[in-house]
């Protein structure tokens, strides 16, 4: 069998860490109880395991365990946060502020609310992908009820200034939500210091399993009310009904625990790999780095290449590496990414772009091989273009 391509798409998903998997396994078979069955040992075991994960995840963001609501992932957490606030606070106002470069799991709930009469301000970003706080300042209105701004961008990896944004929101008593799906375990997050009221998390970007995430919901100063978006048995303090998915939750806790323990060394390692990749790729002419050079996730490199067709480039790369193009996020669409066009790129350049998501299990040897193949693919595509 031919070798599988080198996986460099860690913003899309990550493999489950073996340590995480081993922690999860007994909760499928031996300790299979329902965490809500408080009448017997099976239920207690599940409840204790869920509680342990809840504490770990809460501590990771400086929250309390009661403020963690488990969901099926960040998409559901974003929907619960945005629609839940809109429904609970609509009498106070119907204006929401967010960013043009948010994930679709934020943009689409906002667009849905627009159909119900809410007004949404989509703020632009600067050329480096980061918000201009003066734009936020100008966008606030008396009827603004919510600001939703992500921690780390899933395409270009840039980090938004959460603490500054949080301070501006709290001065005005406006709820601040942050989609932190790419950030949990990767950068320090502190809902107190950053004045964050709602934070969406997911496990599968940080070496946990797919299908599990959480929403942090602030309980004090201020207490945030949410209208539930899923009704049923009243789990998660009524905010998200449904039997808790114990194995996934246990794994989520373990994944976050490992990420926190290794954050500093892992970030140093990933930064080294990313710099090495960029140093090699930037030997090409007509290659551009997308997003702020340093205020970004350690494992993220996003480049645009002049003079090559985007789909031809991806096709040429795919036998050696698994990466995403600037158009890949909404899989079936070949339109350029809304994130890259928001940086002011022309549609064509935005399309000929590649996102590298370097992760825990990548090696320097792999990076060298990827760089070499990338360069030779671009060079041969450019030669063909000249010949035509
Ligand atoms: C992956 C991702 C999501 C969606 O998370 P799921 O857990 O897959 O639903 C939302 N926002 C961002 C920024 C992401 O990277």
In short:
This protein is of the alpha/beta class. It folds into 2 domains: 6-14 and 263-387, Aspartate Aminotransferase, domain 1; 18-257, Aspartate Aminotransferase, domain 2.
How would you describe the overall organization of this protein?
- The protein contains eleven helices and 13 strands.
- It folds into two domains: 134 residues, Alpha-Beta Complex (Aspartate Aminotransferase, domain 1); 240 residues, Type I PLP-dependent aspartate aminotransferase-like (Major domain) (Aspartate Aminotransferase, domain 2, 3-Layer(aba) Sandwich), CATH 3.40.640.
- Helix 2 packs parallel to helix 7 and helix 7 crosses helix 11.
- The strands form three sheets. Strands 2-8-7-6-5-3-4 form a seven-stranded mixed sheet, sandwiched between helices.
- Pyridoxal-5'-phosphate binds next to helix 3.
Structural class: alpha/beta
In spatial order, strands of the major sheet run 2-8-7-6-5-3-4
Helix content: 25-40%
Outline, from the CA principal axes? globular
Look up the CATH topology of the largest domain: Aspartate Aminotransferase, domain 2
* SSE pattern, N- to C-terminal: EHHEHEHEHEHEEEHEEHEEHHEH
Integer average pLDDT: 95
| Cα Rg | 22 Å
**How much of the residues is beta strand, in percent?**
5-15%
DSSP strand count = 13
Bound molecules: pyridoxal-5'-phosphate
Q: Which residues form runs of ≥5 with pLDDT under 50?
A: none
CATH C-level label of the largest domain: Alpha Beta
Q: At CATH's second level, what is the architecture of the largest domain? A: 3-Layer(aba) Sandwich
Distance between the termini: 35 Å
Outline the biggest β-sheet.
7 strands, mixed
Number of helices: 11
The figure for the number of domains is 2
CATH superfamily placement of the largest domain: Type I PLP-dependent aspartate aminotransferase-like (Major domain)
